[in-house]
Amino acid sequence: MTTYEDHTISGVPITIEGVSKIFGPELERPFKALKEVTLSIKAGEFVSVVGASGCGKSTLMLMVAGLLQQTTGTIAVNGHLVNKPVTDVGIAFQDHLLLDFRTAMQNVMLHSDIRGLPRKQMEERAKELFAQLRLERAMDKYPKQLSGGMRQRVSLIRSLVHDPAVLMMDEPLGALDALTRLQVRMDLEALWMRRRPTVLFITHSVEEAVGLSDRIIVMSPSPGEVVDDIRVELERPRPITLGDAPEFGAYVDRIHRHFERLGVLHGLGKLPQNA
Which residues are CB-neighbours of 112 under 8 A, at least 6 positions away? Predict the structure, then answer.
């Protein structure tokens, strides 16, 4: 597996210990979204979390970002306990959340406008990212003038422009068509490899997780708990045709077997009795 020099890592470690989340604890029937989750993420690791809808993947991410309070346990980012929103973080969602009345560059520069960051430095970094993603001609265009894939790449630039130590992504490729999704996946890996922030990537796509990750955390259905922690030993950069590698299929099959055992997938590899 390709290794990286320590000086290329810009990310920081994340520690999650005994973290659970109960919604509506004061209600007669509270909802337990997460069982006690314990997880350590090394600085610069790309970690994906996969599981069925409602298993608590997004809830976990929001708690690590300090946007949602856990019920039990502790979360630390770079050794600092999380008890308020984490500032040195970039967040990208499935919906690009771009403002229609701002150009692509103006949307990216929201970080500078809102947080008072050095504008010239941010503009230079933004232009660098636009160039890396082949979007130079999109900088002065409005979201409605861009394709879905272009809008999602602008959202990715916005999450990276301030060089965050941690990047959190919740289904950022989910709304894209297959070809665009593949291209953005490769773009994301290339951007990550240049600076190696710590990434927490939430996805329903097992293939996408294997294609991007150093590690894959497999979650059980609600209430979510960790059922497997898989280290992905594939060369980087990952090839376009991941399915050609037998190791890729082995990782995918391992995760699918978990989902079959947990009842997320039914009759894997079998025809119904009455077929």
Answer: 118, 119, 122, 123
Q: Render each residue's pLDDT in the chain as its tens digit; 275 residues.
A: 444 444 478 899 999 999 999 999 888 889 999 999 999 999 999 999 999 988 999 999 999 999 999 999 999 999 999 999 998 899 988 777 899 999 999 999 987 777 777 888 889 999 999 998 889 999 999 999 999 889 988 998 999 998 899 999 998 887 778 888 888 888 899 999 999 999 999 998 999 999 999 999 999 999 999 999 999 999 899 888 877 778 899 999 999 999 999 988 876 455 445 44
Q: Which residues contact 42 (CB under 8 A, 6 or more apart)?
A: 13, 198
Closest to 47 in 3D by CA, of 168, 160, 156 = 168
For the chain, domains (ranges, CATH) are 6-88+165-261 (3.40.50.300), 96-163 (no CATH)
Tokens representing 275 are 């077929």
Q: Is 270 left (phi over 0), alpha (psi -120 to 50) or beta?
A: beta
CA distance 187 to 132: 8
